[in-house]
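Appendix B: a complete holo record

For completeness, this appendix reproduces one full record from the ligand-bound portion of the collection. The bound molecule is zinc ion. The inputs are the chain sequence and the ligand SMILES; the output is the full three-dimensional arrangement of the complex, encoded as structure tokens. No fields have been trimmed.
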Amino acid sequence: MNLKKLDDRAFNECLEARIMSRGRTPFWEEKTRKLKSEGYDIKDKEDLRDKTRKWCKKRGITVNFENENTNTNIEVKQSPRVIVCDIESLPIISYSWGIWDQNIGINQIIEDGCLLGWAGKYLNEPEMYSDILTPQEAKKRDTYRITKSIWDFLSSGDVVIGHNYSQFDVKYINTEFLRHNLPPLKYTIVDTLSIAKQNFRFSSNKMKFLNDQLGIRNKIDNSGFDLWRLCSEGDETALKEMLEYNIGDIGATEELFYKLRPYVRNFNVALYNTLETEQCPVCGSTNLVKEGHYYTSAGMWISYRCKDCKCISRGKENLLSKDKKKSLLINS
Ligand SMILES: [Zn+2]
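The structure of the chain with zinc ion bound, as generated:
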């Protein structure tokens, strides 16, 4: 059997277990057994611990357990704060003359759609953050409290990852911010749906389909439209179920992000630290190999391959000489 080299996913799992253990409960042996059974190449628990430490060091991640009585102090130094986030919304309630191909005017709207709940977490950290309307708030469609809580959460992030985030979530959230007079937030968006559309030809780009195809953790199912109707009516059990469903999406989005990460183009981890050596733009690793050159119509650059996440990047210096650049012809 071919053994797999330890990858980001395995290391993240170890990091998560280390944080959860709060430095008290042993877990290395169990993790070693688990990852070995998944086909990873690990000698023993010391080997796994060693490699995880090196992986963390490379990313500037330190986990302190100095203050045992308060919350675990996870200090991720010199890294951008990356959030995975997803929202749920309540549908519009409207008058309608029929059920097929309707064109609903604004004076037919009884209740406008609104934010129902949100869930999120920081990448590489186990805690989940979430909020949902209370039954009273749902009945009145009063979104102020949960809009404020998602504003507080998102304001702590440099980068936000989500599926269809740039076309749906961010606009929906901004609308709520504006309604409630909350100031705008600025962060880089990594949209897994856009990455899937731009780079691949899956038959569907729905997260459920993608995660199924890629064999990774998936969204949990819910009971469909009735669940949204019950939430809108302020049913407590339904609201609880919705929150669970919302939280389930986060794990699935995070796994999809890790799968698609080598194709991410619009953010650079290296901007957030002071290291002056070459770093992989998407995972921050310095474990890079030069892999030939990258050419455009105007120049030649060194091409790099990240040995950790496999992403391809290139240097910023055009390697062509001044004279060579001058002599270049452009196809016309
Ligand atoms: Zn990388």
